[in-house]
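Data availability excerpt. The first of two example chains:
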Amino acid sequence: MTDPRNASGQDGAGTPILLLRFPDGDVEYRSTRGELSVGAVIRSRGAKWRVREYVPEGYPAPADLPGLVPHGFAVAVNAPAAFRYLASTDPVRHAEAARLLDPTVGEVGHAEAGEALAGAMSGLMRRVGAPNGVAGVGYGPDDVSGLVRGAAPQRRLLDNAPADIHEPELEALFGSAMTCWGP
């Protein structure tokens, strides 16, 4: 696997490549109390099938769907929001992960660990051309309640998170996942 800390975001021919590769094709945050698969937040039942028009560059348009959000993008667009929310469960690991994704991140206090990791992930996403948050794949604030309804039944994933995640938390996560970085 290419080390994302040293990657230019392009292959030898200058073609952009996506370096967000994680075990089992998912971004997971593990702690002593469990894990939250942040992909559950958008790849919930029905959510990815409500995509209106988004089809990433280089992907064929699906014949039977109006759009397509690949699994990796569904996970990545929610990761910064999930990292911010979960940081208090293990700020040391969040700070360490931030430094691994972005070696310019220095020492980070416990209160800043989630923001540091969210920023490092957002920076990597931006460099490799990933969509900018949930809005980047075609969702908007009016879609939050539908996304919550789709994600809330994913109890196996949500109950293993190192923090409580129910409908109010999902609503907050989706709201803060609309964009990962500014203009």
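And the second chain:
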Amino acid sequence: MPQNEFPWTGSEAPTWDDILGKPAFIAAGEDAATARAAVGAGTSNLALGTTSTTALAGDTAIPAASSTTPAATAAVGVIGVGTTFARADHVHPLNAATTVVIGGVKQAAAQADSVAVDVAAMVVDFNALLAKLRTAGVLAP
């Protein structure tokens, strides 16, 4: 876009007509109403409605943000019927893991690789692993 040009001399203030190289939408008028009319502003044919091609009415009620704790993870997905929306920083609590419900469990303590050379030593190592898994909640007590 060219720079505005001011082809007058002296100290008097320029008039609108003195300014050259004005963008078309400004050049169409000295005031806002004339400029809007020149570019068709305010002549939209966008319809109010509820589809992807219509506009949302200005008085549409926007659902409130939820103020309740989110539900724990369910074993089966549920669509839900809530009429509020989740806040961006919400956190779902974890279920306790059971034989039926999937839940959060802690990492089990490290178990060294077995170097057992007989069955009795292997049983000791295996039982140590089972104890650590139970303590972490991976296996039922």
